[in-house]
# Entry
Amino acid sequence: MKSLLLILLGLTFCLTAAAQTSNVQPIDGTDCSNLFFKALAEKDAAALSSLVSNDFTAIGMRGQPIQSNQLVQAVSQGIIVIDSGMLSAARTRTYGDVAVTTGLWNVKARIENAGFEGELSYMSVCVKSGGRWKIVAVQFTPI
# Structure
């Protein structure tokens, strides 16, 4: 009986730990933006899905809009693969429950097996709604 109880207790802790890693909860707008890029780099579609809002839009390097479901699906299917990326020169301005972060992203990536390597200027917009920070928009511009 004690063994069964210990096993169940151990499973409960394992499930709780797994749930916490996939349910990303940013502490502020800067963290929200950073976690978005981290989820992309780690190919973590679950974390990405928990970070982006339902009405999220990314503006790609050629001006094409990408909706939240398209981005999450592309990452989970390996259509978008970030091989390496380094953020720099980040600056966040916070206006109540809205945070605008701008910076540079030196990235090496593959999009539909087409390689890209270079520096991008980015702007991300995060909004606190219902007590949680979500990313609602990102724009990438090659420089």
